[in-house]
Amino acid sequence: MKKYARIFRYLKPFKSNIGLYLLFSVLSIVFSLVSFGAVPFFVKMIFSPEKIVVLPPKNIFSTDEINYQLSLFIQQHGKDGPILALGIICILIVASTFLKNLFYYLSFYILSPMKMSVITKFRSDIYNKLLQLPIGYFTEQKKGDVMSRVTNDLTEIEISVVGTVEGFIKDPLNLIIILFILIAISPKLSLMLFVFLPLTGFIIGRISRSLKKNSNASAIKLGEVLSILDETLSGLRVIKAFNAEKKIKEKFEETNKQLYVIKNKLQIRRDLASPLSEFLGVTVLAGVLWIGGKLVLGGNAAGLDAEGFILYIVLFTQVINPAKSLSTSFYNMQKGSAAIQRIEEILNAPVLVDENISGKQIQTFHQSIQFKNVSFSYDDKIILKDINLTIQKGRTIALVGSSGAGKSTLADLIPRFHDVSGGELLIDGINIKNYSLQSVRNLMGIVTQEPILFNDTIAANIALGSINATQQQIEEAAKIANAHNYIIHKEEGYNTNIGDRGTKLSGGERQRLTIARAVLKNPPILILDEATSSLDTESEKLVQDAINNMMQNRTSIVIAHRLSTIRHADEIIVLQKGEIVERGTHDELLTYNGIYKKLVDMQEVK
User: Fold this and answer.
1) pLDDT digit string (tens) for 469-520?
2) In terms of Cα–Cα distance, which of 540, 534, 462, 528 is closest to 498?
3) What is the per-residue DSSP string for 30-45?
4) Confidence of residue 60 (pLDDT cuts 50, 70, 90)
5) pLDDT at 206
6) H-type alpha helices, 235-244
7) What residue ranges of the chain are covered by domains with CATH 3.40.50.300?
8) The pLDDT of residue 49 is above 60
């Protein structure tokens, strides 16, 4: 039950609702049994109205007591007695059925918001955790697999676990009440139930063991399907350009076929629950009919008459449906537990970067950013080693080097996308971990190589990090970013929707929007990660002019492959295999005739 601890925790605010649900469920079961319990007496009124019970029974909680009261009523009303008694029985059946269904509905009326609340809370917790997890977590995970957990696995929990909560509350209650009544009617006949029912449960349990394993394999395979789909949609232009449709299609078809085989096996076992439990239940019923019939016909039923035996059989048939439902719920819970496990892997994933909500608030940047013997490794792979670097306020520092040298990782340490593995990173002489994470990131604006935009209006994208920005401030930021002129020529201006990831804009237009977003935030520290490397010459000039406007009077960390964009930096840091191998101004580094000089010569920078 540990797997379902989170669900039980989500249900804590609904303690009173759970009590009401139990009450309505019990009442529904009781009135259901009343309507079914009236059947034997209805049969007696039709086939044996002349039988009159004269002496009151010794046990008032028995069918004999009901027979006695029914006989008295018939005696008191003479020849109309049987007809009147028959009418009362019919009214009793209708009334009890009405009350049964009323309380049945009320139980679901109470349960429904509880179920929806659990799923809503689950979904919110997963999304919030995804926002908290470090960026490194997502480099190790397939996007399709993460999406599968958030969508398919959560749906599986809703159907298989939360959807069967009533099965694990109502059905056991139903079984317990019915079994209690059956024992009261005939302890001797009920003895066999306690032999056959555990055996039935054992058989069902053995078959359902493989469900969890198959369900987990199904979820993993679905994640692969979603990953291929995501890659296809993202890279459709490249796929078509290289005539790779057949290859991608074969990959998808093979994965999809594997998913079919797994899900088919899973569904076969899942669908076996109801017919198997019904067959076993009817088998036990046949045994009860045989043994009970022999006892009644042989006069060895220990006080169990024909009406009591009919009542016993009628009530026993009501064991089959809840037993079927309970076994189906058990199958579903086994299948759903795999989904819970996959979601728990996200919810329990360690948040390696502590937000330090109660930490020191840094409002402004005064002096410097300092790396002191900083090292960083991920999964035992050393990415940065013994970095010593001081970035004074107002200066522009450029990071250059070959791909994989550690430039982006070094820049990512400043907004704490990762935390250092060794050494210290200081802002104004204080360890960055001692500040609250939010206050540190408030000091920074970031422009990445790939423009990250959202399916919203131009204005909303610019104001992403500035909730209270006015329209005038948004337009001023756009002007500094050289974006205002093209925006006002759009059909709806700043209210134009830019589509998914900004696909309605050109590359240069998208990048200038991200610069406008950084300008509007007005941060003292800028991090520019190859912001112009993917642009054409004309767009690059416009974006570079915007960057130059934005960098005025700010501390800037610039990552660049195009060395022409950073030749005026105050200091250029050359990285190789995670270490600083050269540093200085553009002119100084050229005189060293080292790695930087080779990079410059390759790009023919004059």
Assistant:
1) 899 989 888 888 888 888 898 888 989 998 877 888 887 888 888 888 888 8
2) 462
3) HHHHHHHHTHHHHHHH
4) very low
5) 61
6) 236-241
7) 396-405+441-603
8) no
How far is the C-alpha of 549 from the C-alpha of 564, rounded, in Å? 17
The predicted pLDDT at position 534 comes to 57
342 compared with 386, residue with greater pLDDT: 386
Coil, strand or helix: which one is 296? helix
DSSP 518-572: HHHH--SEEEEESTTTTS-HHHHHHHHHHHHHHHTTSEEEEE-SSGGGSTT-SEE
The side-by-side arrangement of strands in the sheet containing 430-431 is 381-392, 368-378, 422-427, 430-431
Helices (H), 371-504: 407-412, 437-441, 458-462, 471-480, 484-488
User: Cα(109)–Cα(477) distance, rounded to whole angstroms?
Assistant: 52
CA–CA separation, 232 vs 142, rounded Å? Answer: 14
Tokens read off for 298 = 């042989």
φ, ψ of residue 385 to 5 degrees: the values are -140, 120
**In the predicted structure, residue 41 carries a pLDDT above the cut 80:** no
- Helix 39-47 and helix 81-132: axis angle, to 10°? 160
- The mean pLDDT value of the chain amounts to 78
Which fold would CATH assign to domain 140-349?
Answer: ABC transporter transmembrane region fold (1.20.1560)
Look up residue 330 and give its two tokens: 């058990």
Supply the pLDDT for residue 250: 85
Please name the fold of domain 396-405+441-603.
Rossmann fold (3.40.50)
User: CATH 1.20.1560.10 region(s) of the chain?
Assistant: 140-349
Cite the beta strand spans of 379-467 per DSSP E: 381-392, 396-400, 422-427, 430-431, 444-447
Whether the CB-CB separation of 89 and 64 falls below 8 Å is answered with no
3-state DSSP assignment of residue 582: strand
DSSP result, 339-370: HHHHHHHHHTS---S---TTSB---S--SEEE
Q: Is the model's pLDDT at 371 over the cut of 90?
A: yes
End-to-end CA separation in angstroms for the chain: 70
In this prediction the pTM is 0.69
pLDDT of res. 306: 66
**pLDDT more than 70, % of the chain:** 76
